[in-house]
Amino acid sequence: MPNRLANSTSPYLLQHADNPINWWPWCPEAFAEARERNVPVLLSVGYAACHWCHVMAHESFEDAETAAQVNAEFVAIKVDREERPDIDAVYMAATQAMTGSGGWPMTCFLTPAGEPFQCGTYYPPAPRQGVPGFRQLLAAVTRAWHEDGERVRGAAGQIAARLAESAATSLPPTVVDPDALDAAVATLATEFDPTDGGFGVAPKFPPSMTLEFLLRHHERTGSARALEMAALTCERMARGGMYDQLGGGFARYSVDAAWVVPHFEKMLYDNALLLRVYTHLARRPAGAIQDAPAEPYRAGQAAVLAHRVAEETATFLLRDLRTEQGGFAAALDADTDGVEGLTYAWTPEQLRDVLGDLDGEWAAELLTVTPAGTFEHGSSTLHLLTDPDPGDLQRWQRARADLLAARSTRPQPARDDKVVTAWNGMVIAALAEAGAALGRPDWVDAAAGAATLVLTLHRVDGRLRRSSRGGVVGAAGGVLEDYSCLADGLLTLHQVTGAAQWLDSALELLDAALEHFADPQQPGGYFDTADDAEELLHRPRDLTDGATPSGASALAGALLTASVLAEPGRAGRYGEASEAAVAAVGVLAGKHPRFAGNWLSVAEAAARGPLQVAVVGAAAGEGSEQRESLLGCARRLAPGGSVIVAGEPDAPGVPLLADRPVVGGAAAAYVCRGFVCDRPVTSEDELADALR
Questions:
Q1: How would you class 635 by CB atoms within 10 Å of its CB: exposed for 0-12, middle for 13-18, buried for 19 or more?
Q2: What mean pLDDT is reported for the chain?
Q3: Which of 3, 199, 529, 678 shows the greatest Cβ crowding within 10 Å of its Cβ?
């Protein structure tokens, strides 16, 4: 019989709806039952695409004896971390404080007041490698609760108090000026892997925001080292097994340092962020990329590769993650039928079965599919370490299509089809920016469709909800990243389309974020939850840029963009708020740039003013071709973080075009940096010079 999770909008919770455990969703009634029964709460937090979440579910949560033990001695609560990132943040802080690390599944034991006293991650069904078995742990917690309950509750209260105190700590404000940006690049260089790209050791995650910072820094300063780190990392990731060489799109991370074997889940946010990075790299002049990195780059190779990867990643997003309603689903699972890599790995024999002996052997060599295998059980992930020779390009395109078609007949990973507001904001920005830069208006249309869906469905009484599924909005309120990332996506869509509606909605979201998430005690500080959100143990705030931008850094970026797009009466407020937010994390950006990539990207854009390009001219008829020519030039050459808008002079609802007439009857481009503007130009050559 299904438990209380059966009516959830979360695919992760629905995966557990038929467990024999009497799961509760997170709700006051669950804690009330724990108080009434005088039992602790078992809190299990995970997400639908999580491999070890599935493993623990199969081993323990589906086991009748384990379920009987849980039901008798605990109130069990299941939480989707993607649907409730606020709950996840609070108890992940506790887990990391108690164990020194964290991850999912997260397993916490709480008092009926929600205070944690025992935390961990995955527990096997029986003791293994020093980790207690799950039932063994359940018994120990039960024994401690009944035999030493006063001490347990006292310790939990102390832990909760320390966590709240830590969460309230702020950093001293520090300006992130050009010297600090130079120092950040120098620090990153000490952690850079010169062979395989990326930073640190295995496992390696795609450092999308750090790469964006490095590209922007190169554009501002000409730093060859910054470009080398960005271009080499992009190339190595795209040629390794972490990138889907057949279907496009990136897996969550690589378990090794050389990007060979991925953790196979595909997340919407990773692919949105990486689409923007590869689009940015694809726009770099070929000579700049050739001159900066050493071997193995040929002239323009990095830009050509980046263009291809951007095309394929956008195709993956539209083909595999777009929902019927026009939004974008959260993820594809790591597992297929409980087996990692079942859909994606190949043997030489399987390649020959699909392509024939001759082409199969050729493809095996091209894709590094060996008899010994690079993955498990003699199978290999696919790598494209070098491009096919020009004469073999059509052969590769046929082989790729045939292999993808054959792969589609295999069992496929499940899709977590909830639509998360923040992540859809990221993909709206990515598709709009990539569509404009690479000449794909269909991508811009897809971005507009997603924006329409989220604004229509997720905005309830003027406030955002976190997610929806199947056209039904969830109950969880939006957190700071939802307001920030959606506003950023809408601002990008406004720049690409010129439509005032996107700007209006973005500014409404920014105003709501400033009103409900700002810390009144710390200038430039923000909480991740609203001032009227559900009260948890403490009000979480995470300043670090991890897998996604922190809500505060995304807000700082959107505010900076809005500061030159909004009418003057509001623009100054946005600019001041962005500057204060960046200064509030200056210490973090200086000491740990790997975990402040988006903050540093915002600071780079601010160091340029940010740069603004307003192109004015008729939309149709005489002069329209010149306007499009100037706009195309701006989109090719303007550095990352620039603000670009085109339209007719004094177009209603577009303040950046106000008081900027055509010149001598011809379309013109106005280039400004901060509050200083160049003279208007009317030719591509003049505009290119101004942008350089």
A1: buried
A2: 94
A3: 529
Q: How far, in Å, CA of 607 to CA of 588, rounded?
A: 18
Distance CA 483, CA 506 (A): 9
Determine the residue type at 324: E
**How many angstroms separate the Cα of 577 from the Cα of each of 481, 492, 548?**
16, 19, 21
pLDDT at 429 over 60: yes
Separation CA 383–CA 9 (nearest Å) = 37
Specify the CATH superfamily of domain 11-167: Glutaredoxin (3.40.30.10)
For residues 67-78, average pLDDT: 97
Question: Over the stretch 294-337, which tens digit does the pLDDT of each residue have?
Answer: 443 343 578 899 999 999 999 999 999 999 999 999 999 988 98
b/e 14-42 (16+ beta carbons within 10 angstroms → b): bbbbebbbebbbbeeebbebbeeeebbbb
For residues 578-607, average pLDDT: 96
Domain ranges of the chain: 11-167, 193-416, 609-692
Give yes or no for residue 565 having a pLDDT over 90.
yes
Instruction: Give the three-class secondary structure for 622.
Output: coil
Q: In CATH terms, are 11-167 and 609-692 the same topology?
A: yes
For the domain made up of 609-692, give the CATH fold: Glutaredoxin (3.40.30)
In the block, tokens 């030719």 appear at: 683
Closest by Cα among 21, 22, 28, 25 to 10:
25
pTM (whole model) above 0.85: yes
pLDDT range class, residue 1, cuts 50, 70, 90: low
Query: What is d(CA 609, CA 389) in angstroms, rounded to the nearest whole number?
Result: 44
CA 577 – CA 186 distance, rounded (Å):
28
Closest CA to 610 of 270, 192, 220, 288: 220
What pLDDT is attached to residue 296? Answer: 38
Q: What percent of the chain has pLDDT over 90?
A: 88
The H or E element that residue 340 is part of is strand 339-340
- Is the distance from CB of 677 to CB of 671 less than 8 angstroms? yes
Q: What share of the chain is helix, strand, coil (3-state, %, to 5)?
A: 50, 10, 35
> For residue 146, how far is the Cα from the chain centroid?
43
> d(Cα 114, Cα 156) in Å, to the nearest integer?
9
